[in-house]
Amino acid sequence: MARALIHMPATAKRGEVIEIRALIGHPMETGYRPGADGKLIPRDIIRKFVCRYNGEQVFGAELHQAVSANPYISFFTIATETGTLEFTWEGDQGFAQTEKMNLTVGPA
Amino acid sequence: MKRRDMLAAAGTGLAMLALVRPAFATTEEMAAAINSFTGGVKPTEDRVTFDIAQLIDNGNAVPVTIAVDSAMTAADHVSAIAIFNERNPQTDVAVFTLGPRAGKAQVSTRIRLATSQKLTAVARMSDGSYRSASVSVIVALAACIEGEAP
Amino acid sequence: MSRTLGGALCCLAGLLMLGATSAKDARRSGSEFMSASTQAMQRDDTLNPAMLWISGGEAQWSAVAGKSGKSCASCHGEAKQSMRGVAARYPAFHAGSKKTINLGQRINVCREQKQQAPALRAESEELLGLEAYVAMQSRGMPVEPPRDAGTTAAAARGKDLYVQRIGQLNLSCAQCHDQQAGKRLAGSTIPQAHAAAYPIYRLEWQAMGSLQRRLRNCMSGVRAEVPAFGAQELVDLEAWLAVRDKGMKIETPGVRP
Questions:
Q1: What is the pLDDT of chain B when averaged over all its residues?
Q2: Which domain holds residue B92?
Q3: Is residue B12 predicted with pLDDT exceeding 50?
Q4: Strand partners, C100
Q5: Cβ(A85)–Cβ(A103) under 8 Å?
Q6: Are the CB atoms for C209 and C199 separated by under 8 Å?
Q7: Which ipTM was obtained for this model?
Q8: The domain spanning residue B79 has which CATH number?
Q9: Domain count along chain B
Q10: With DSSP H G I counted as helix, E B as strand and the rest as coil, what are the percentages for chain C, rounded to 5?
Q11: Whole-model pTM?
């Protein structure tokens, strides 16, 4: 289990556009680096990131080797209703991780 | 050295270079990747801002923010933002999927840059059009007088 | 009337003195030599990759370890209170160990002696996370090295090492970081080698690392024999750097290129 940190408000007004910052610990090994033995270290990256809001995808990302280690992504979404935001990362070597955050949405 | 000999030597050198495949992406490859993303549609250079430092401390983690001027309504919104580079080993950086639920067409991330180069962000709009912005950045490589001790 | 005027003049003199003192302090943190975007990464905890390690350190603080069945919290309670100011006083002479040790070593003393748990490996995610978590509780506080005989002796040895030429390139720390600070070396500006931001997330490492990792890299860079992690010379250098940094604000967790 990698360390993951999600920064987003706990509450919002209906219709408010909120910013979400997602950070996860992962080497994002490019496959272009030689190891101590001179051989290339095989590629090992997170390839996909998805945010689902009460089950519906509101944001997605397809990542390549040029995304830095410990990938950081910031994006926006409209606070539509109270519920759960689910963040999923998937990648090489069967990497899969999900984090959940609750959002309470009050009247506009 | 006679001029003819010198030219012959240069010619041999160039032929040698052509045999070695470049290990890094090229301008043509970036253009091809953008073309693939847009399905052949040529992007117009408007509505997209590509925010990145011009002089970069370290190419391992360069913060970037791409913003697209869009009302983000169901009828008119950004459905995807793609970032491409010209001189890393691979031209693709990331593709972000948005939609009207985004509220704001802005994404930030941190990317790797192998060397000074040009970067392009392309936004796919819901009306089928494509918008883009390009930046040129200088990457200062790490100081030579250092090395990871075992 | 004259009393008030006299009072005002004294106040003004005091202000001028303060101004003069801070104007004379030419010390600049390494963060001042970084680009704006790297500075922003350090300034904002929601952007700082080191927070990944620190969230691990925070979890470890409350996790029981070893035969003792105790966590750090069992004895020390809330780190925010109990660890405040601690990193500012390290390295420090530890009577029980009979030598000057750094914060990471002090954490391991607790691990082994109080928790009866195995020491955490140098540069391990666990030790870096815990060290950074503890040091962060002193963020913003001035570096204040202890003045006891043991610590000052270590700092004196460290100062000798700092000015000693080493390696095939035959360079001392002082030559680059005192004499050439601010000038350029390859693509980078040479910083003044202040250490109050450690452990740091270094963009070059794409990970967190300790001050000793950075010192060893510099020594490797000048083609010198590199002491092992935990070697007393490295701790002595750290002790000297703390004296050299006295009064500068702790920035942990720092971000550096």
A1: 85
A2: 24-139
A3: no
A4: C93
A5: yes
A6: yes
A7: 0.97
A8: 2.60.40.2470
A9: 1
A10: 50, 10, 40
A11: 0.89
Q: Which candidate, B72, B70, B117, B71, places its Cα nearest to that of B90?
A: B117
Q: What gap in Å lies between CA C251 and CA C253, rounded to an integer?
A: 6
Say whether C186 and B145 touch across the interface (CB within 8 A). yes
Do A73 and B108 contact (CB within 8 A), yes or no? Answer: yes
CB neighbour list of residue C173: distance below 8 Å, 6 or more residues apart: C161, C162, C163, C193, C218, C237
φ, ψ (nearest 5 deg) of residue B75: -80, -30
> Checking DSSP bridges between strand C200-202 and strand C254-256, what pairing results, if any?
parallel
Whether residue B146 has pLDDT greater than 70? no
Contact between C60 and C129 under an 8 Å Cβ cutoff? The reply is: yes
Q: What is the pLDDT of residue B22?
A: 44
Given its phi and psi angles, is residue C13 left (phi above 0), alpha (psi -120 to 50 degrees) or beta?
alpha
Low-confidence ranges of chain C (pLDDT < 70): 1-23
Range 44-63 of C in CB contact (< 8 A) with A:
46-47, 49, 51-53, 55-56
Architecture of domain C32-257: Orthogonal Bundle (1.10)
Q: What is the DSSP string of B102-134?
A: GSS-EEEEEE--SSSEEEEEEEEETTS-EEEEE
Contact criterion met (CB < 8 Å) for B97 and A61: yes
Taking a contact as any Cβ pair under 8 Å apart, which residues of chain A between 72 and 91 contact chain B?
72-78, 80
Contact between chains at B147 and C188 (C-beta distance less than 8 A): no
Across the interface, which of B93, B97, B98 has its CB nearest the CB of A66?
B93
Residue C19 has a pLDDT of: 36
Domain ranges of chain C: 32-257
C218 noted as active-site residue: yes
Domains in chain A (CATH in brackets) are: 4-106 (2.60.40.10)
What are A51-69's pLDDT values in tens digits?
999 999 999 999 999 999 9
pLDDT digits (tens, 9 = 90+) for C54-100: 999 999 999 999 999 999 999 999 999 999 999 999 999 999 999 99
